[in-house]
Amino acid sequence: MKFILPFILFLSLSQFISAQENCKVLLHEIDSIYIGKCKKGYAHGKGTAIGKDSYTGKFTKGWPNGKGTYTWANGDIYTGGWIEGKRNGNGKLTLKLADRDSILDGLWKEDMYLGPKPKAPSVITKTSIERHSFQKLGKIHNRVLINFLQSGGTNNTITNLSINATSGEETNLGNSIGYEFVKFPVIIRVSYATMNKLNTLRYQAIFEFEITEPGDWLVKLHN
């Protein structure tokens, strides 16, 4: 009996090593040893790959893909997003220098550091606004549009509307009002009178906010 257990452990370990040897990692610097999940012969899912450098995190079809930590042979460490073996998205690189660490923390694309992650839009003043949202659209305009909503549709009870911005030119697009040719960061202040949902009372609403990240923004105000 005492010989059976070691034999079973040896057999299981041999099968495990064989399975990992047949699981490919496509990034040459970490392709010597792999321990983790596989799919169709490639590292796929959570795993650890070791070569000249090492990586622990998510893989897709043999590539670091998703969130993971990469450690270079010289001690540099990156933790963050990956797409097909390249740093992409939000991540932090710590460079090991002789006297101190140097850190690059922010956004990456195709292994290139783009800079710190922009601050999220912030609210400066909010009065009589039920809820609000900021949405960055996938367009290239430097623009901020504002939609006024109530009970799931456009708020058609607004009067005495006043909008002021630190930059940009006023614009209208359908039911949206705002500014284009904006220079960011921008601060916009909106004030208006509106009826409540029951249409029994008129009150004053104020919403002042700041957006620092350039882009095409849509702000929704619900009353």
TrEMBL record:
The keyword Repeat applies. Gene3D superfamilies: Histone H3 K4-specific methyltransferase SET7/9 N-terminal domain. The keyword Coiled coil does not apply. Residues 1-19 form the signal peptide. SUPFAM superfamilies: Histone H3 K4-specific methyltransferase SET7/9 N-terminal domain. InterPro entries: MORN. Keywords: Repeat, Signal. PANTHER family: RADIAL SPOKE HEAD 1 HOMOLOG. This is MORN repeat-containing protein. It comes from Paralabilibaculum antarcticum. The lineage of its organism: Bacteria, Pseudomonadati, Bacteroidota, Bacteroidia, Marinilabiliales.
